[in-house]
Sequence to fold (89 residues):
Amino acid sequence: MKNKYWSVLKIILALFLIFGGVQHFLKPEAYVPFVPVFLPGTMAVIYVSGVLEIVFGIALFLKVGVYGGYRNSDFNATLFTNPYMGCLF
Fold:
């Protein structure tokens, strides 16, 4: 039961990531306020982050080998959705 619960949550997270990534291309002006002013190429930052969200969303659907006790897709979800974990690696 617990495994099924986490599988459903992982699918929901993947769908949100993919949807958000697609929105970076459909309505990029909505993301402009979130890009810091000191970064050059505001639109490039928005498009690159959109591609990354789509890639990580798709990665959650993949079942790949084991890395450090976690499946790679679970490791990616933890690393890139939690900003504090991202600082550790």
The chain is about 65% helix and 5% strand.
